[in-house]
Amino acid sequence: MERTKVAQLLKEAPGQQVLAKGWVRTKRGNKNVAFIALNDGSTINNIQIVCDLTKFDEEFMKRITTGACLAVTGDLVASQGSGQAVEIQASDIEIYGECDATYPLQKKGHSMEFLREIAHLRPRTNTFGAVLRIRHNMAFAIHNFFNSKGFYYLHTPLITAADAEGAGAMFQVTTLDVDNPPRTEDGKVDYTKDFFGRLTSLTVSGQLEGELGATALGEIYTFGPTFRAENSNTPRHLAEFWMIEPEMAFYDIKDNMDLAEEFIKYLVQYALDHCLDDITFLNNMFDKELLERLQGVLKDSFVRLTYTEGIKILEKAVADGVKFEYPVGWGIDLQSEHERYLVEKHFGKPVILTDYPKDIKAFYMKQNEDGKTVRAMDVLFPKIGEIIGGSEREASFEKLNARIDELGMSHRTLEWYLDTRRFGSCPHSGFGLGFERLLMFVTGMANIRDVIPFPRTPNNAEF
Ligand code: 4AD
Ligand code: MG
What we know:
With about 475 residues, the protein is an alpha+beta fold. The protein has 2 domains: about 5-95, CATH 2.40.50.140; about 120-170 and about 205-450, 2-Layer Sandwich (BirA Bifunctional Protein, domain 2), CATH 3.30.930.10. Helix content is about 30%, strand content about 25%. The protein contains 13 helices and 16 strands. It has helices at about 5-10, 60, 110-115, 125-150, 205-215, 255-275, 275-285, 290-300, 305-320, 335-345, 395-405, 415-420, 435-445, and strands at about 15-30, 35-40, 45-50, 70-80, 85-95, 150-155, 160, 170-175, 200, 220-225, 240-250, 305, 350-355, 375-380, 385-390, 430-435. The strands form 3 sheets. It has an 8-stranded mixed sheet, with helices on both faces. Strand 2 (about 35-40) and strand 3 (about 45-50) form a beta hairpin. Helix 4 (about 125-150) packs across helix 6 and helix 4 (about 125-150) crosses helix 7 (about 275-285). The chain is elongated. The site of 4-amino-1,4-dioxobutan-2-aminium adenosine-5'-monophosphate has 22 residues, from strand 11, strand 15, strand 16 and helix 13.
């Protein structure tokens, strides 16, 4: 007999023989009957298995405990109890894997911190089941969105010799013996002897390569892991996170903002359409305003204003007695507390801030006529702060080249990139959406570690 997944079983009509396979969530009952809640990951909901104890002997039933893995054959019948339409009247149970009393997932809830320590346990909880199903659906929706618009999925490299963001917080990749590396005459490590014949690292962004794609294919996107060695142990930073980076020829900053807004709204709508069971579970479990927040984002147009206007609002707030941990003034890199003030307190909806000071943004952004700001755009979200960072790109070879000099960056590792400006340069724009930041918003999870199956953070890479 063929196995039917639980998600499907719950939609089937009663009056048929079925085979279900899954893990025991709970078992309860009395002398005559046992009720087993079985889950196979296909849905947040369990199928109830009813065991008539005249048919199963006591010793056998004792082996079925929370966490055990079973194959259950029986009749699908209309349920007597409330809470489910159908249940399985078991006729035969095979125990695939027993689960002894040291299994840590018992009825009571565990903290997110505790679950992070136990690799095998996390995905079997209701919460992570819900998060991981939503994560999958969002990845699928991202490809759907871009494919339907004629964007091409471009695979950019993970190992790179360039530093796109100029932040310097990169993980080095080497095959040299780090205890005893080859050295040049002046005593420095000789990277010409390394695997790639030069110093290489894990990428912080696929953007630079993405621009080569956009200036040939028109519209592309990347979607892959990126790596940052910044030592920021916050609930919003990972050392390994996934980023979606569309890059479009002939888009100016306004086109870029329109795309970003349409994109996020599409994803939130897709989540509501396809993951409502899981979102409702998370809403009831952790965050009673989650559904409302998701619907709220769909309703309004995002507010668009310049960084300079944003700073004025923050300065006024400070003058009116609002306390921030970090000081406010033109030129500062906005902290999440500032971003969230604008979004949650001042406007009550998502905000796109544009035209940031050039000194706090990356070298490739289009320079404004004022000589002080660049055509950057950050999308700021409730609860999260920055969810997207992007810009129109500097298309002029001379200006870009001058900026690279000004910042003292190495031309040698960027010549291939500068060629896009040397040969047939065009106006173009793009942005990066942090996949886990998006998932924090959609799931309501408060810590970014809880929206990725295997988080990588400082001092944490065991599994
Ligand atoms: O603002 P960022 O650094 O922009 C770029 O990397 C550009 N190259 C993107 C582009 O224009 N193509 O990062 C983009 C987004 C941020 O807005 C944030 O959502 C996310 O990536 N992000 C992180 N997410 C988790 N952990 C981290 N350490 C992150 N750093 C950035
Ligand atoms: Mg940014």
